[in-house]
Design goal:
Length: about 350
């Protein structure tokens, strides 16, 4: 009887521990095998310049100000064209207006008329939305993410990836188009499906610039998470689906290995948890495409969320540069892993 009771008590203790480990995905010995520091250098000053350009010159880049939204799109397109000739504009119509995703391609071209023994190459997709909520300047939300895309394009221009990479600046992520087919990311997903493209991974940059080292500066959707995660908002987060915990852990591990001194946290959680699906990555989840969100956790940390105070001077560009370098490192790791697997299949 005592033995059965002991087993029951241990089970009750181990179940929450196991669930917590699956959700948080702590490191194990594998992290020691990853040495990626110094693979690329992102420039904090360029990141700052791009955030200031988008949040000041194109401050009202939203659904109700199509002219400014188009000017922001033109700026992103011009910056992409400095890094690659393969820039694509994906246009679509909402009501009587046209809106545009801007896509920059890097690495090997995919020839869908060719025959591949193991199917066509799967691209890595890195995206961020460039529109803002109403009349906010949107420095963190989401000029920070778009500045990250532009800096990644500059890095890929110097160090081309060995597998296809698409960098996508999405339009119309914010209300009133959020969770509708008018979102730029949903339009992008539709184009992938039409072309028969299955991504290797989608990485969405959603607010990557705000940090706070004060105690209790970090909140969570569930108070229980404070037992597992930091109370200070000094880390970058990797958010993924509960069922994709191994992928989420890989992204976390590789980003952490690029900058061991800069904390990276991950969470694998169901979409019902508030905030888990609050960006463009959820558009890919709808079609079972692997996707993660890289974020400073938005309104769980940044008091300027969707306010006029979301300005360029509130962001930390040194940490932003480390986020960009970490995302680049993930593409290198996945490229190497893919190439090794392809060779083993020959």
């Amino acid at each position: 009887m005592r033995k059965a009771l002991l087993i029951t008590l241990l089970s009750l203790l181990l179940v929450p521990v196991a669930i917590g480990a699956w959700v948080k995905q702590p490191f194990n010995h594998e992290i020691g095998e990853l040495k990626f520091a110094g693979l690329a250098e992102a420039d904090p000053e360029r990141l700052k310049a791009d955030v200031e350009k988008l949040s000041v010159t194109y401050a009202t880049r939203h659904f109700g100000d199509v002219r400014t939204l188009d000017l922001a799109a033109n700026y992103i397109q011009a910056e992409f064209k400095k890094t690659t000739e393969r820039v694509e504009i994906q246009s679509y119509q909402v009501d009587s207006e046209k809106f545009h995703n801007i896509i920059a391609h890097f690495g090997p071209k995919i020839d869908y008329t060719a025959t591949y023994e193991n199917g066509p190459p799967k691209p890595i997709i890195i995206g961020a939305h460039y529109d803002v909520h109403e009349d906010t300047m949107g420095a963190d939300d989401n000029a920070s993410g778009v500045a990250g895309l532009l800096e990644l394009a500059r890095i890929f221009a110097k160090k081309p990836p060995t597998i296809p990479v698409q960098i996508v600046a999405y339009t119309l992520e914010e209300p009133p188009n959020f969770r509708t087919d008018s979102m730029g990311s949903r339009q992008h997903v539709a184009s992938l499906m039409q072309a028969g493209i299955q991504p290797e991974l989608v990485i969405v940059l959603e607010m990557i610039g705000y940090y706070n080292e004060a105690e209790n500066s970090q909140e969570y959707p569930v108070s229980l998470l404070k037992w597992f995660y930091p109370t200070r908002g000094d880390f970058i987060g990797v958010v993924g689906r509960f069922s994709a915990a191994p992928t989420n852990k890989m992204v976390k591990m590789v980003m952490q290995s690029a900058h061991p001194e800069f904390p990276v946290e991950s969470i694998s959680a169901p979409a019902m948890m508030t905030g888990i699906d609050f960006s463009d990555h959820a558009s890919y989840w709808l079609h079972d495409m692997p996707a993660v969100m890289i974020t400073d956790t938005s309104f769980y940390r940044n008091p300027n969320y969707h306010k006029a105070t979301d300005t360029a001077d509130t962001l930390d560009y040194t940490r932003m540069a480390k986020v960009v370098e970490g995302v680049h490192t993930v593409t290198v790791y996945m490229s190497d892993s893919k190439n090794i697997k392809d060779k083993s299949d020959e």
